[in-house]
User: Fold this.
Amino acid sequence: MSIKITDLTPGFVGEVSGVDITQPLNTEQVAALEAGMDRYAVLVYHDQRVSDDQQKAFSISFGPLEHTAGGNLTKVAERRLDAYMADVSNLGVDQKPLARDDRRRLFNLGNQLWHSDSSFRAVPAKYSLLSGRIVVDAGGNTEFADMRAAYDALDAKTKADIENLVCEHSLIYSRGTLGFTELSDEEKQMFKPVRQRLVRVHPVTGRKSLYLSSHAGTIIGWPMPEARAFLRDLNEHAVQPRFTYSHKWTEYDLVVWDNRSTMHRVRRFDETMVRDMRRTTVAGESVTVEQMAA
Assistant:
């Protein structure tokens, strides 16, 4: 059976069939799936009963994996998964839901804000691949926003105004909006801001998109209040229903998205229930400022 991708949301979200990602892929299959990512930006694979090693092997088909260090507060002794698997579950090492006041849980509530994975890194992520190992019946949907369509819908003056703007991104900004401000000196150093272009150009399609995220807290050269008000306006524009898709998880769904073209967030759910979600992240290839300058 050959790979087939059908529309869930035309031009934005596709559903993949005809491939078993637990098995090694050949060159033609990888090329077909990458072309699908370039076209859609979000691809949904159902009933992919992957192990951690199989998920990592599939992910590496699209580039080297990003290390999880620098993106969370979890200490080495607290990790359930290895350093190349991002644990976006609500579980501790005892496989039980984290306590309501657990510092890791409070930090991870930032995933409910619209964001692009690893925009807080100097070289931001390419793809994210999220596997639903244990899902909840109610809530917990992951919502995606098409930042290409959001850019396209801007008026000409706004496009001209934002073309060369540079923002600073940091986990300090995103968590601070939730009131999570108590960070150690080591954590502040780890989460120090990085600069990202506000308008990105896709390296394959050449299509422009807004590069927004809850991690973006300033615009270089702008007064802080003006920058944050403007970024809020752009975010409100970008997440209108006409630009978004909500994914209702079923067990062993795998969803892949292009962080260069999308934002996403998780919705609330009953955190007394187990929700085991495991993400691999394909590392990016360049910083956005250099990409635009080139």
About this structure: The mean pLDDT is 96. The chain has nine helices and 15 strands. Residues 4-293 form a domain with the Double-stranded beta-helix fold (CATH 3.60.130.10).
